[in-house]
């Protein structure tokens, strides 16, 4: 028995229908969120980066639709802070080499905390 796909198939979108992928965010909206996220990260010397990252991701998901369904980001800064502290420590003791593992790790965490509304 085949399980249904967890996301809408783009093959079912008929010609003339709504586009399979849509992004409706604007520059002014993003600028406010980006400045706030930057200030939060800068003022806390990077400690609050998980919350800044979640703000940006929440904005991106709120403005992204796939197959007519809007995305929702469920992650929180509190849920990411443990990983961030570990990654930050490893980044320092490896003199930056660990960043090659941090980038995919952050992306994996973001994907795992993104779903359809």
Your description of this structure?
- By secondary structure, the protein is of the alpha+beta class.
- It has helices at 27-43, 49-62, 77-93, 99-112, and strands spanning 21-23, 64-66, 69-73, 114-116.
- It has a four-stranded antiparallel sheet with strand order 1-2-3-4.
- Strand 2 and strand 3 form a beta hairpin.
- Helix 2 (49-62) crosses helix 3.
Question: Which key features would you list for this structure?
Answer:
single chain; 117 residues; alpha+beta; four-stranded antiparallel β-sheet; 4 helices; globular; transmembrane; transmembrane helix; DUF898; DUF898 domain-containing protein; membrane
Outline the fold blueprint:
Blueprint lengths: L20 E3 L3 H17 L5 H14 L1 E3 L2 E5 L3 H17 L5 H14 L1 E3 L1
Antiparallel strand pairs: 1-2, 2-3, 3-4
Helix pairs in contact: 1-2, 2-3
Summarize it.
The chain has helices at residues 27-43, 49-62, 77-93, 99-112, and strands at 21-23, 64-66, 69-73, 114-116.
Low-pLDDT segments, ≥5 res: none
Radius of gyration, whole Å? 17 Å
Q: List how many beta strands DSSP finds.
A: 4
Read across the widest sheet, the strand sequence of neighbours is 1-2-3-4
Keywords: Membrane, Transmembrane, Transmembrane helix
InterPro entries: DUF898
Protein name: DUF898 domain-containing protein
Organism: Nannocystis pusilla
